[in-house]
Structure formats: structure tokens, C-alpha cells
Amino acid sequence: MKIWLRKYEKAIQGEQALSYANAEGPLVYWKNQLFFSFLLYCLPFCFIAAIPGVYMALVSGYINIAVVDVACVFVVAVVTFANRLPLRLRKLSIVVVCYFLALFLVDKLGYFGPGVFYLFVITILAALIFRIKYAYWSIAANTLLLLAYALNIQFHFFESALNHIYTPGGWIAFSANLTFLSIVLVMMIHHIFRSLEATLLNKEMLQERYKSIFDRSPLPMWLFDTQTLAFLDVNEAAVRHYGYTKEEFLLMTIKAIRPAAASHALEEVVEKNRMSGVFYTGKAQHITKSGQTIFVNIESNLLLLDGKQARLVQATDITELLNNEVEALNANLKIKESELNLRAIFNSTNDGFVLLNALFCIKQFNSKAINYVKLGATPKQFEIGKSIFDFVEPSKLPYFKELIQKVYAGEAIEYDRMYKDVSKGPVWIRFTITPVYEGDTIQGACICGRDITARKLYVDTIEHQNKTLREISWMQSHLVRAPLARIMGLTSMLNNPVNDEEKADILNYLNISSQELDHIIKRITRQSDIIAQAPVPGADAKKCDDFYMETTPDP
């Protein structure tokens, strides 16, 4: 039955199927729909009135009434199925047929016929299917027609059944009721349609506004059927972001943009949200047309659209954000690892370090700082946040402040200082104070203390050895030279003939010179041995003093 009804509706409307898009406005759209509904029901149900009317007309001898009734039904049938005719012409045709039938029946049957009733119906029909002004024109036309009948009753211009039933006054009184009811009902219909038009316009404006928001949203949005999961609508941002055309979207389900492994979980979530109807938010993995995997933040709400439960979804791409978070996490891990490595190096180095901030307060220090950054006679344990000046010996505080000011002005300071240690003896510390930059601005200073005692001893040892070597060289060039020269001279004298007494003197002098040379050579050898056995860096002061005494040449 429904199939035949749809075919019947299609035969009536033909290519004139209506929508808001091709109508002049929402009110005109609904008026046109009312006219199609009138055609849909008028033809089959008009036989309820036509068959008895024709039968009674034939029985009563009113052949002309029967012919007019059949003709009017035929015209209504033609107009009903003449779907190629313009819609306005079809409306006018129905109104003309109704007017013709009404006037004919009023003329032939008078008060007892349905003619007056059809005049009333024409006004109501005009108010329903035309602009309201045509309904008021219909009232005016009906009033003039009824007045014309009153004049005909009075002056008998033509033969009519009314002439034998009514007086002019009686007919006007009767007609006034028709006019009154027509005006009241048309005004009520006008009020209803005006309110309906305002409601429809407001609804249309809201729909346009939300449609505009939907279409122009910079974020991908779509509507999908919660039963079939099919896309119902998508905005331009979704088309740009996912790479599918709008037509392609409308042929797909939301499973198409999800990984295959997530299909079952997706169906469960949609079904759960469809039953609860609550606002949903969550993160999901989507796949674009190019195959790229992206991560999105989903926000959706349940809507009732054309009798279907649909979900309005907004998807925010957070792929870059997640990548940045991963990069930031990896960077933080590397920074922590670097900090740990730096802390290990900072604490394992043999030097003492103290870092200061821009206000001369201690920012950080290592475990060696108390031993090698000695700023006072009695070392103190450093504390983070305290001023470095609290740890400086009062007598040296002005000098230290002067150095720090130079460092904060961009200069690097380096100096050595000796401290006396009861257990170790003299201890030498080399201080290096350098500025700490952040960008191009000095934001602090670094004080480094290094024990250079062994280095000092080594340098002093080398200096004393060099002094001894210079003395040995002097002895070789001066002290050895004198006896050697005498020996060489005496030896040359033995080559000449001499007497025994002279020979004995030469030999005696040779012996003295040889003993002197031997003494000098032994002295050089002894001093060379002392150099070879010189104390290494870190030797105590007593050994150093012994070495200095041994290597000092005799006057």
C-alpha cells in the first residue's frame, strides 16, 4: 500500500518536488506543500460528494447539475496529474473550478445547495495555498458576488433559485454571516502563518548560523549516524585535513578513518555513547586518505537529526603537540642525564668549585670546595643561598670584593695563595674567578680553587737543580781548568832535558796538581749524585733544605 501511495505522490508532484532551496521562503514552501496535500486527498475523497450529488441530480431531473459535477471532477483530476503545469497555474485552476461550481450551485439550488459552502471553502483554501492578500481578495470577491445576487433578487436580472427563496434583506443577512466567518478565519490563519513564518525564519537563521559555524570552523567537524556509523555531513576543514572529498566522505563510515584494529572498540564506544547520550571527549588515532597516521582529540555530542540519532564530532589534530611532548620528554631526559654526568664530573674533579648568582649568593658548590676554596683562616662549610662574603676573612674582604667586582665587569682573575697546614706544612692554592654568562649577560661567577703545592715544589726543585748545574758547569770551566793546565804545563817540561833536582820538583808539582784535580772531580761527582737524588714534588721541607745546603758551592 505504501508503495502505491508513494507512486501516487510522485505522479502528483512530478518534477515539482519542493525544498527550502527552490522555494521563495519557508512559508511559501509550506503553502505549496499544503496544496500538494490538498491535491493528494481531494481527488479520491471528492467522490464522496460527487457520486451522491450526481445520483440525486439525475433522480431529481437536474441533468445540468450532474454534468457540471462530473466536469468539475474531471478538471480536478486533470489538474492533479498535470504535474508539468506551473504550480501557480494549477492552484488558479483549482480555485476557478471551485468558483464555477459554487456560483452554479448557488444559482441553481440556492440556500439548499452547497454553493455558499464552496465560496467559504475557496476563501480558506486561498488563505492556505496563496499569499494572505489573495485570501482577503477572495473575501472581497465573495462579498461582491453575494451583493450581486442580492441585486438580482431585487431586480430579477436573471432567473435564479434565490429569487424565490430570499428577499434582498434576508439574503444580505445570510451573506453577512459568510463574510463574517471568512474574515475571522482568514485573520486567524494569517496570524497562525505569520507566527509560523517568524518561527521558521528564526529556525532557518539558527540553522544557517550553525551551518555557517559548522562549515567555516577551522577544525575538522562531521556528523555521523550512530546506527550505521555513516557520515552524514562534513565541513571544509575535514576535507582539507583528511584529503577526502565531501562526496567520498558521504559514501564512507567513520571506520574508514580509523585503524582496522580499532573497529570493534570504536563500535563499542559509539554504542555506549548512543545509549548514554552524554558529551564525549577522548583521544584517537586516525588515518588520512594518503595513509598518514595522525592523533586527534575527539569531542562529540548526541543530536536528533531528521529522526535519527547522530553525533556531531569535532577533531583537533594533536600529532605535532604529542611529537613536541615526546621531544621535550627526550630532551628533559637528556638534560637530566647531562646534569647527572655534569654533577658526577663536578663532584669527582680534584678542584673545588663555587658558583655564584647575580647577587653574589652561592648557587651551587661541590664536595671539594671546602678544601680548595679557602676564603678564611678557618674553612667553613658552604651553604646554598648565603652570600659568598660571609665566608671571606674580614681582613681580606675589601680586596676580595674588589676582585669580584672586576669579575662581574667581565674580567677573569687568577692568583695564588699559601696556607699553613699543621699536618702537611705549606699548602699553595691557585684561585681562578671567572664570569658566568647567560646569553650576552653576566649572571654570576665561578670560583675555582686548585691545590698547586706539588707543582710549586716541583718548580722550586727544578730551579735549584738548574742552579747546581750552573755551579758544576762553573767548576768545570774554572776550578778544573787550573790544575789541568798546570799538569799539562809540567808534562811538557818533562819532555825537555832536565837534571834530577828539577825533575823531582816537576813530579812533586804534578802530584799536587793531580790530587787537587782529583778532589775537584770527586766534589763534582758528589754534587751530581745529590742532583740525581734530589727530592721529588711533595717532599718535605727538611729534605729540600738539605738539598739546598749540599748543592751550595764552597766559597
Automatic annotation (TrEMBL):
Catalytic activity: ATP + protein L-histidine = ADP + protein N-phospho-L-histidine
UniProt domain PAS: residue ranges: 206-250
EC number(s) stated in the UniProt entry for this protein: 2.7.13.3
Stretches assigned to coiled coil: 312-339
Gene3D superfamilies per the UniProt record, alphabetical: PAS domain (3.30.450.20)
Gene Ontology MF term list: phosphorelay sensor kinase activity
CDD domains attached to this UniProt entry: PAS (cd00130)
Superkingdom of this protein's organism: Bacteria
Keywords attached to this entry: Coiled coil, Kinase, Membrane, Phosphoprotein, Transferase, Transmembrane, Transmembrane helix
Main EC class the enzyme belongs to: transferase
Transmembrane segments: 34-55, 61-82, 89-106, 112-130, 137-158, 170-193
Stored Pfam families: MASE11, PAS_8, PAS_9
The protein, known as: histidine kinase
Organism: Mucilaginibacter psychrotolerans
